[in-house]
Amino acid sequence: MLRFRSPSISSLTQEVQCTVRLLDDSEISCSIQRDTKGQFLLDHVCNHYSLLEKDYFGIRYVDPEKQRHWLDPSKPVVKQMKCQQPYTMCFRVKFYPQEPIKIKEELTRYLLYLQLKRDVYHGRLLCPFADAAYLGACIVQAELGDYDPEEHPADYISDFKLFPKQSLKLERKIMEIHQNELRGQCPALAELNLLQRAHTLDTYGVDPHPCKDFTGSTAFLGFTARGFVVFQGNKRIHLLKWADVSKFKFEGKTFYVIGVQREKKLVLTFHTSTPAACKHLWKCAVENQAFYKCAKSSQIKTVSSSSIFFKGSRFRYSGRVAKEVIEASSKIQREPPVVHRSQFGQSRSFTSLSHKQLIMNMEPLLPALSSSRENRDSSADNGLSALKDSVHLSPLKPSVTPEEVEIEERENHVQERREDEAANRTRVDEERREIHIDNEDEACSALTISDTAYSPCASMVPTPVEESQGGLDLLFQSPARLLKELHADPEMQVELQAERERELAREAYRQSLCSPSSGRQQMQACLRSAARLVVMATGLLMILLPLLLVLLESDLDISFLHDIRQTPEFEQFHYEYYCPLRRWFLCKLELMTEQSWGD
């Protein structure tokens, strides 16, 4: 059991238990003090891996409202965690490298590979059919090695659950690439090929934040090494490069993106489900902008969520930026550490790294999945579990009858024809668009990213969604359906009727103001307003002028008062007006005093 104590404060007696789930689904536990900062915990996990290129990674946790957060390295862990002890967190990739080939060590590439494998499984890394097949083949090559007809059955790809919707056509394509194109590649090379293909996709590095745009349509916001992106359906509708992003800000549930596009000011407005989700989105935006845009960490500034004085949140990214991380990686001179890869078929309680003598939590947070059908059922029932972000790649082979296989093949055949037609239509649309727009406009316009809509798992998005509310479908339903349900509510009918009556009253008042008889009333109201303004200004001058004279005639040694006293105008006022007035006032005061004493 490792214990950490902050060097700045004396050690406290009370300890806190923390469990961190790693990218290979193993778990390490440790005891920390109540004043231990997040950086200690992050360094602990990186030391467990012997990881030096640790700026790409972070620790994520979930609060009681199911809102996900990144652990702030500069703040104490206990002050950030609002849930009950023991604390459970996840070690994840926070900033995706723009060019994975520049990663120096194989260990870092392997951890990035594990993260991308999760992104593929949970639907965050959405891509076209050909790219999906290649990514799946790279995963199989890294897990199984070369294809061996004597060892691997005809349907060996079906043992893997690689994608949220894994069709028979996709499995056949993966099998073809695995057997022909990737033969002879070691796990490290297969993982590198996956990284090289994945980083060219539009959804690479996207942590999707669900929200609504100004029309009420569902959209997913994300931040990549290229800039700020927005996805709707199967299209990327916005790409605002970091050089064109001016500022991010939020107010309540509303998130604003201010930038420049085609030399014109652009303001994008989005609405989240909760204020906490909006603040988390804003913090992620600020961190990603600083990491990818700034050339040095010294250029990072503290930003505010609003331009109004004494209002809003203030936040500053405290780590190194991407360019500094790449420079530091190029200077690593040590012997490469041994990479302990998880073996095919291992259970979720994988403990091959236990030689570090760290306490492992043997109770998995999720039950092991026995079949793809059971996995779909459990995902539908427990889709809002905040820690589902850790399903390991394990063989999932359902037992089915020959009749079910025949029915499934028929359905897959129909589905294949539909997918081919959709792909042809998409290809034609792409060719037409390429004829009419140039490359620069295409980079910022709507771009089809896949044949299917971008819809990551509900538990994988940072925004909390109540299970009783029906998940993302009900939270982000269409405006027409929402209005229909609202109009069907009797209480809403009463409120609408009251609103109509108020609108009619306001309209009648506006018409009365436009009538000729109301012209004199408007003129009188304007005169009264002007008179009040003059009276207030006069009263203010009557108060401020005597106060200024008292300050000028006093002995206060203030620079601006001293400069006024040295002017000829003030000296003339002092000797010709102030001194005679003062003598007259003192004479009157003495006379009144003598009369009072005489009486």
Automatic annotation (TrEMBL):
GO CC terms in record: cytoskeleton; membrane
Q: Does the keyword Transferase apply?
A: no
Q: Which GO terms describe its molecular function?
A: cytoskeletal protein binding
Q: Where in the cell is it found?
A: Membrane
Question: Basic and acidic residues: which segments have biased composition?
Answer: 410-430
Q: According to its UniProt record, where is this protein mainly located?
A: membrane
Q: Where is this region: Disordered?
A: 370-430
Q: Which residues form the FERM domain?
A: 16-296
Determine if DNA repair is one of this entry's keywords.
no
GO biological-process terms attached to the record: actomyosin structure organization
**Protein name as it appears in the record:** FERM domain-containing protein 3
Top-level taxon of origin: Eukaryota
**The organism's taxonomic lineage, starting at the top:** Eukaryota, Metazoa, Chordata, Craniata, Vertebrata
Task: Report the transmembrane regions from the record.
Answer: 530-552
Q: Which UniProt keywords apply?
A: Membrane, Transmembrane, Transmembrane helix
- InterPro entries (UniProt xref): Band_41_domain, Ez/rad/moesin-like, FA, FERM/acyl-CoA-bd_prot_sf, FERM_2, FERM_central, FERM_CS, FERM_domain
Q: Which organism is it from?
A: Cirrhinus molitorella (mud carp)
PROSITE patterns for the chain: FERM_1 (PS00660), FERM_3 (PS50057)
Q: How does it sit in the membrane?
A: Single-pass membrane protein
